[in-house]
Design goal:
By secondary structure, the protein is of the alpha+beta class. It has 2 domains: about 5-290 and about 480-540, FAD/NAD(P)-binding domain, CATH 3.50.50.60; about 295-480, Alpha-Beta Complex (Flavocytochrome C3, Chain A, domain 1), CATH 3.90.700.10. It has helices at about 5, 30-40, 70-75, 80-95, 100-115, 155, 170-175, 185-200, 250-255, 275-285, 335-345, 360-365, 380-385, 390-400, 405-420, 430-435, 525-540, and strands at about 20-25, 45-50, 65, 125-130, 145-150, 150-155, 180, 200-205, 210-215, 220-225, 230-240, 290, 295-300, 305-310, 315-320, 355-360, 385-390, 470-480, 485, 490-495, 500-505. Mean pLDDT is about 90; it is low at about 5-15 and about 440-450.
Length: about 550
Amino acid sequence: MTLSDAHEDNGTNDGTDSETYDVIVVGSGGGLVGAYAAASRGLRTLVIEKTGRVGGTVAYSGGGLWFPGSAPLCRAGVEDGVDQARTYLRDVVADGAREHLQDAYLQAGPRLIEELERSEWFEPFVHGPVPDYFSWRPGGTTSGRTVFPQDMPAAQLGDRAGLVRDSLYTERWWKTDPGTALTGGRALIGRALGAFLDTGNGTLKLNTALTGLVVEGGRVVGVDAVSEGRAVRFRAGRGVILAAGGFERDRELREKHQPAAQGGQWSNGAPANTGDALKAGIAIGADTDLLDEAWYVPGLVQPDGLPFFHTGTRGGIWVNGAGERFVNETRPYDQAGHEIARLHTTTGVRHTPCHWILDQRQIDRDSFAGPPDQPIGQEWLDSGALRKVDTLEEVAKIVDVPVEALRQTIERYNAFAQTGVDEDFHRGETPWDQMFHHTIGFPAGPNYLASPTSEWPNPMLQPLDTPPYYVATVALADIGTKGGLKTDEHARVLCPDGTAIPGLYASGNTAAPMSGRVYPGAGTPIGSSIAFAYLAVLDLAGEPV
């Protein structure tokens, strides 16, 4: 049965309203950059956004883009090229079925950055020295391949600045954003929004949720949506780009495909990411891939009872339901998150949540959940999110393990602290680990990620022997699901037989990633989102890659 036979629209659901554009982009995160690329080519482009503000999960991020061989790396004196990065991807992803996607990504990144930097809305991107997450592998680099947007004065956007979603921190705790500057992912979104609207070819419709795709003659020719409570139909002469994030907030899909994620209630993805675009693609016969995957991360449970994306553990240990260490606590977050998920579902021992145990020595050096020179926020202790006790017996009771099992774990760890070598999990040995005990300063994060120097052989392995002790909780979280619609090197959505669905494209977490089950380096998720949205525009505009 063909796509046309199975899903032909019969014209009976033409909505109460109808508008026609050249290109429709569903979602206003990374897809907003693709929308700018389309509109800047003279294509009448519509962006529909389910919520009242633009940016999605991209606005929560640091805004990093993993773009090997791009101009910001050259300007920073980083010796790197696409060929070296290709070697790296081939090695760490190790999936021949994705090599054509990797090649397309590597071609698109530098070209896209060059194009964006020609716009007056985009200041030159800058390099941030974040080591590749497998920097020791063939083609890897310790200097990193991640580039970042520069901060953007909110005044440059004027009243439009209020359209940009707040940071996750601001949104989560109802903090008031001073509004003086957009940083990280908010800067990327703000710049893309201004550039898109200033083309004169861009239309943005907020509070407009996708409900389905319109198929005529075997081709996707538009979308059905609900806008401000009214059924509408938007038609697209060139194509539809689905860039609406993943399905991290859809309990049914997560329980079906990702049982370790516990329904997604601990996700750090945007709240409206319920897989609408994924479901719309599946409904017209699109193929899917890697629906069991997510960009898993450890989540430090906060005073409000929910986890927050955590990286850069500098001391203490994590223990599972048996009171044992099970991972290098400071390894790249995606790797740590995947290990939590794997062990929780395969060993019969609880790994989510697990517990983070520290002592006074560690608190004195690094404080907790903030800059080292700031005291622990009283809300941590008042809420019980951080427990302070005097003895290991009390720690064992909190963790709910026999005290002797916990004591053995700590004694083994303390022996490693004396030698400086973590014989079990090799903490402190990789460039990523070592980044957290060197002073750094770049747009990816603040200087407080750096730990002070240590009198111990390995600064990441201080002994755990100085009461009082502190216990926090770490749960499996994520920054979005990772699997989605299957696409080709032009971002065209594919049927199960490998043929492309005419007029339909996907990028970001709506699509299955070029990186497979691996997170190669900082900025891969957002880099993939905007690179494949860009590749979609090149294809529907008839431009060669």
